Amino acid sequence: MKTREKTNSAASLQEDGGATRPQKPGLSRRSLIGGAAMAAGLLAFGGATAAFGGETDRLRPPGGQDADRFWGACIRCDRCRAACPLAAIGVEGLTPGIIGARLPIMDFREGYCDMCDGAFRCIAACPTGALTAFDPYVDKIGMAVVDEAECQLYGISGTCNAPCIDACEWDALSLDENGRLVVDEKRCNGCGACEYVCPTSAYRNYDASNKRGINVEVWHG
């Protein structure tokens, strides 16, 4: 009888709007510690995965330059690539190992990074935090490196009109007193515009090196 009375009483309170649902407990200290431990574990897993997957130098989208964090957080959802307005983001094949397949990489043969005028659509689209905040005046996707064996300005004819200089919005490229291309490493952020417009591979890449006169490489500075 008492159980039935309690049930009836509770039902009447709900009908009258007098009952209040119990509040969900907030995050406990144990939950916070557990969450921090899980985050640390993901980062450690990212480092181990990178090593196991045969990680070699790769140009990642803006904010993905911390390899351990990137490998631990990226879920290969492809949202960063889809969000890039200039098609500068591609996907990795099997070169670094099967674990690295489908990770996003920069592809400056297809496009370049204009930093989205500071909006960074790729970072905004990332759901896991694999791509973190990026300052184009401080951080670097990579570094432009002149290949003297491929750059037409270093050749015998030296006929290139250096479209890479005009394409660089960061004033990182110039010609020295001999008319040779030089890179200002302090200004270059690896946007890839120079590599994208370089005509070398179209005109005189006889050795099939797949390199251009200027190429963006991973920056270790």
Automatic annotation (TrEMBL):
SUPFAM superfamilies: 4Fe-4S ferredoxins
The 4Fe-4S ferredoxin-type domain, residue ranges: 63-94, 102-136, 179-208
Name of the protein described by the UniProt record: 4Fe-4S ferredoxin-type domain-containing protein
Chain ranges passing through the membrane: 31-52
InterPro entries the record matches: 4Fe4S_Fe-S-bd, 4Fe4S_Fe_S_CS, RnfB_subfamily, TAT_signal
Renumbered residue ranges of the record's region Disordered: 1-26
Record's keyword annotation contains DNA-binding: no
Domain of life: Bacteria
PROSITE patterns: 4FE4S_FER_1, 4FE4S_FER_2, TAT
Molecular functions (GO terms): 4 iron, 4 sulfur cluster binding; metal ion binding
Keywords from the UniProt entry: 4Fe-4S, Electron transport, Iron, Iron-sulfur, Membrane, Metal-binding, Transmembrane, Transmembrane helix, Transport
Sections of the chain in a coiled coil: none
